[in-house]
Design brief:
Elements lengths: L1 E4 L14 E9 L10 E9 L3 E6 H21 L4 E2 H4 L9 E5 L4 E8 L2 E7 L4 E11 L2 E10 L2 E8 L17 E7 L4 E10 L16 E5 H13 L3 H8 L6 E2 L5 E2 L1 H18 L11
Parallel strand pairs: 5-15, 8-14
Antiparallel strand pairs: 1-9, 2-3, 2-13, 3-4, 4-6, 6-7, 7-8, 9-10, 10-11, 11-12, 12-13, 15-16
Length: about 290
């Protein structure tokens, strides 16, 4: 076994790091008490000359459509009617963008909580153990490596045939692209399912879920806010109402409901959802 500490060297080879899109199927278990229920989501890793962007392709496409709907509503009526029926049609659940800048591999996550957008700086480092074990995954010859991150042990399979020291989520630093990544508990897995080029600039954010202005915070601050949001999901609605905001809500049948009723519903649903959503990728968020 060879100890491999992340090196900030980047060889692009024949790919030349020009607008490569690597598509990953992300399979994960939300509830550890029901491991047979597996959720799947299509993710994209867009690699360019200056860095990469990892995001949910499902969310991006869905939110682009949703964004157009709400923009038209604002232009027509001057306000935005939050229709829970429309909102329930949103696809995907990975509502973040993870950026890695080259060659330093500075990582930042763009996400949102409530009505605000945040840019979260990542300061945790990866220390890899490269093993001798090899296998072919799809059309690529790969080699095994292990690391620990965010409260989990991870197994990665990388390929030097894809000369990028990058990978899904916040993982990077191996001598080739990570083709497959799985936690030791086998409840989170990313596997490469497609390679292509793209001509448009890398999407910066999901247009509906990300306002323009972002609040910069660190990982410790994000964890604190994550737990607060999980425990009080209606916090932002309460704050908006306290600041004089005018909000309209409708249930799934299109019937208008009061803010008080909306808050009550969110708190009730969150309690039930939290019980079944106990296995985030970054497990240490709950600790």
């Amino acid at each position: 076994m060879k100890n491999f500490t992340v090196l900030f060297l980047f060889a692009f080879g024949i790919f030349n790091a020009q607008n490569q899109r690597f598509s990953y199927e992300y399979q994960f278990v939300k509830d550890t008490l029901n491991k047979t229920e597996i959720t799947k989501e299509l993710m994209s890793l867009d690699i360019g000359k200056e860095g990469s962007n990892f995001y949910s392709r499902d969310v991006y496409v869905s939110d682009s459509t949703m964004n157009a709907y709400f923009e038209k509503q604002i232009q027509t009526t001057g306000s935005m009617n939050v229709d829970t029926k429309i909102m329930s049609q949103r696809k995907g659940s990975m509502r973040y963008n993870i950026f890695k800048s080259y060659p330093e591999f500075k990582i930042s996550t763009k996400t949102r909580m409530g009505m605000d957008a945040y840019k979260v700086a990542e300061d945790r480092k990866l220390a890899w153990n490269i093993l001798k074990e090899k296998q072919k995954i799809g059309e690529f010859n790969t080699q095994k490596a292990t690391t620990e991150f965010a409260g989990r042990k991870w197994i990665a399979w990388f390929s030097t045939e894809l000369p990028f020291q990058d990978g899904p989520y916040k993982f990077y630093g191996l001598p080739g692209l990570i083709v497959k990544l799985e936690d030791a508990a086998k409840t989170h897995q990313f596997e490469l399912v497609g390679v292509s080029k793209y001509t448009s600039p890398t999407e910066k954010v999901s247009p509906f879920s990300q306002p323009n202005k972002e609040i910069e915070i660190n990982q410790k601050q994000y964890k604190k806010m994550y737990l607060e949001e999980r425990n009080d999901p209606a916090k932002t609605i309460k704050q908006a109402l306290a600041n004089g905001g005018i909000l309209q809500f409708r249930d799934q049948n299109g019937t208008e409901i009061s803010p008080v009723e909306m808050i009550k519903n969110k708190e009730k649903n969150a309690k039930a959802n939290n019980a079944k959503d106990n296995n985030p990728l970054e497990l240490d968020l709950l600790k």
